[in-house]
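Journal club side-thread
Mid-discussion, someone asked how the predicted structure for our own chain would compare to the paper's figures. Pasting it here so we can look after the session.
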Amino acid sequence: MRHFLDFEKPVAELEGKLEELRRTNDAGGLDLGEEIGKLRDKAEKLLAATYAKLTPWQKAQVARHPERPKCLDYVRGLIEGWTPLAGDRAFAEDAAVISGLGWFRGRAVAVLGTEKGHDTETRVKHNFGMARPEGYRKARRIMQMAGRFGLPILSFVDTSGAFPGIEAEARGQAEAIARSIEAGLEAPVPFVATIIGEGGSGGAIALAAADRVLMLEHAIYSVISPEGCASILWRDAALAPQAAEALKLTAEDLKRLKLIDEVVAEPLGGAHRDRAAMVQAVGDSVAGALGALEALDGATLKARRREKFLEMGRVAGG
């Protein structure tokens, strides 16, 4: 059964009626084809109108939709010969960060991502996509290995942020994130990052200091969650919708501010309504971005990447 968000209730009601008509029609005795067609058109128009005017807070809800494709969905749909790699060679394995090698449309690549999980069991296993220091140290290890072997890096980011527990701080969370960002900036190979859901704070940019940063149409990318921002500024998490507006966290805002490079269109009603189509659309965008980078040597890639992120600071500071 499809999960509907609060603002989708009118659409849910129409689709519920449509399903009832279909069941009645399939049972026989009545020809309801014309009524079904009219109601289907009405539901699609309402869905299109609803998604054409989403607020930033509503986009945050879509980005967190439980049925939205996750990192491993993209890995399974786009990477052939997938060989996962585990461990940071220092402390432990972190299941929140996915890493491995495989083939992407004929190219050997290194892959990184943050995995939230689809159900209670997998969400707990992957710590809801919130990585600990060992996760970022693993990411750094994979990026450095990719540089040594000349493998392009692909990352798929979906995290509310790094794990905030005291044990993570005790093991050097901030340093691990900084080193992961450094490894991304220093990688002498093409690096394409895609924000597929939430891009939260340093926990996201640790896997997204890339040559090209793609972002799904209804994803969000911000220094802090709307709830966290509202709690800090106004001491009231209920003001998250206002915070979402102020944070400029939507793909459209970030493209305009030149903080991302490309917005990947989602199926009507969000990525969760057609996960297979979304995975292929991301694959097409990643392939295009990667193709434009493959002719550049390592020194040029590093210099351009460095300038790209310095320019962001100049725009923000100016």
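Post-session note: The chain has two domains: 6-53, 60-317.
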